[in-house]
Amino acid sequence: MPINQRQVNIDLKEMPTQWYNILPDLPEPLPPPKDPESGESRLKNLPKILLGECLKQEFSQERWIDIPEELQHIYHQAGRPRSLFRAVNLEKRLDTPARLYYKAEFYSPTGSHKVNTALAQAFYAKKEGYERLTTETGAGQWGTALAYGAALAGLKCTVFWVRAVYSWKKDRRNLMELFGADVYASPSDQTEFGKTLYGKDANHPGSLGIAISEGMEDAIKDPKAIYCLGSVLNHVLMHQTIIGLETKKQFVKFEDYPDMVISCLGGGSNFGGFALPFVHDVLKEGKKIKFIAAQSKASPNLQGEYRYDFADYAEMTPMLKMYTLGHKIDMVPIKGDGLRYHGCSPILSLLRDKGIIDTIAYPEDEKHVFERATQFIRAEGFLPAPESAYSVACAIDEALKCKESGEKKVIAFNVSGHGFLDIPGFREVLNLK
Ligand SMILES: *Cc1c(COP(=O)(O)O)cnc(C)c1O
Question: Which CA distances in Å does 4 have to 55, 82, 319?
Answer without folding.
Answer: 45, 19, 49
